[in-house]
Design brief:
7 helices; 9-stranded mixed β-sheet; 6-stranded mixed β-sheet; about 375 residues; about 30% helix; alpha/beta; Purple Acid Phosphatase, chain A, domain 2
Length: about 375
């Protein structure tokens, strides 16, 4: 008889547990539905056109292993480009290195050491140039250890510039400007970054941003490096024995899961662009403001600012590649020959088959 009552108790308990689980699922579904309705309603009140300005690697000079800083304490670095980034609704880039006045290099201190440490007093230059968000998911963010990362975050916090990309720290950011909420996340290939190969985590972060943002932007640091790596390969890229993922697959995955814009950097050269399912992808914007510590010969000096217009649903309308060139110690300067735009045009026509994107010789991007 006791087994009979025990069976009844187990059945009732299971029924209650199942009922409670269903209620919890329903509550979760209701919350998600309410969040989606809120985002939809908010998007209906957004401007018809949003302008986004993007660029690649920013490393404004270094104090390690020797002091190599631009003239006028860096105040002229962005003088040719900041009218574009200041005027955009939101401007984004990749901060290639630590912004810190302390910390020991994790990469040694030889003459060919690639460890970048910008002085903390340079942080306001980024604000003056109009940047709203900077990616930290790159292979130089931790050049000076955890203290370098912490000081970089402190500098950006003081300037009101959002950032993300380091695993275990800030994995995403929401920037609200002129009534539009931009959800931004960043991924890289280094051990300490959020990784673009970890698609489960990528989806989780994008899903979270969709629930609290109007426009979702994904940026990534990826791809093999050097002047011979300007073409976008199919499949996995391997560089220095490291698997750096399949960037076409990653970018398409982001769009398929709700991202509106995806742009990359990392190879130190520009790569192709794509319109995928009506959304914009730039596979690499190369170096941008790197006056010291990097090769600036040939196509490594190509430094575009890419300006695109999207609608309130995040769909691409049109864009412009603004061409700039770098010389050592100077920063990006206007390229009157539009050689940068013509390079991206050629790479896009070569590497993106069947895409509706069109790029003119003067850099106009259209469908």
């Amino acid at each position: 008889m006791k087994y009979f009552f025990l069976s009844i108790f187990i059945a009732v308990s299971a029924s209650c547990t199942s009922s409670e689980m269903k209620k919890a699922d329903n509550v979760s579904d209701d919350i998600q539905k309410a969040q989606e309705e809120q985002v939809t309603e908010h998007r209906q009140n957004m401007p018809d056109t949003i302008t986004i300005a993007m660029c690649g690697d920013i490393m404004m000079g270094t104090t390690f292993p020797t002091v190599q800083l631009p003239p006028n304490d860096g105040k002229d670095l962005f003088k040719d480009t900041k009218t574009i980034t200041q005027a955009a609704d939101i401007a984004l880039g990749n901060l290639e290195g630590a912004m810190s006045d302390e910390g020991a290099s994790r990469k040694g201190n030889g003459p060919n050491t690639y460890a970048f440490r910008m002085p903390e007093r340079f942080a306001p230059l980024l604000t003056d140039a109009g940047y709203d968000y900077l990616c930290m998911a790159n292979n130089h963010a931790k050049d000076f250890g955890d203290i370098g990362i912490a000081n970089t975050e402190k500098c950006l916090d003081k300037e009101g510039i959002k950032y993300s990309g380091i695993e275990g720290r800030k994995e995403s950011a929401v920037v609200e400007l002129n009534g539009v909420r931009y959800g931004i996340c960043a991924f890289g290939h280094n051990q300490y970054t959020l990784k673009h190969k970890d698609l489960k985590t990528v989806k989780r972060i994008i899903d979270d941003l969709k629930s609290k943002s109007d426009i979702v932007i994904v940026t990534f640091h990826g791809g093999a490096e050097g002047r011979t790596k300007n073409h976008l390969p199919y499949g996995t890229e391997v560089f220095l024995g490291e698997d750096r993922g399949s960037l076409r697959e990653f970018a398409h995955f982001c769009i398929d899961n709700g991202a509106d814009v995806v742009f990359g950097h990392g190879p130190h050269v520009v790569r192709a662009m794509e319109i995928y399912n009506n959304h914009f992808i730039a596979y690499s914007l190369g170096n941008f403001c790197t006056p010291y510590g990097m090769s600036l010969s040939g196509i490594s000096a190509y430094s575009p600012v890419v300006e695109i217009k999207i609608n309130s649903q995040g769909e691409f309308i049109e864009g412009q590649i603004h061409s700039f060139l770098q010389t050592k110690g100077v920063g990006p300067r206007k390229d009157s020959s539009n050689s940068v735009a013509r390079e991206i045009k050629q790479l896009t026509e070569s590497d993106i088959k069947g895409s509706p994107i069109r790029i003119s010789a003067d850099g106009k991007i259209s469908k």
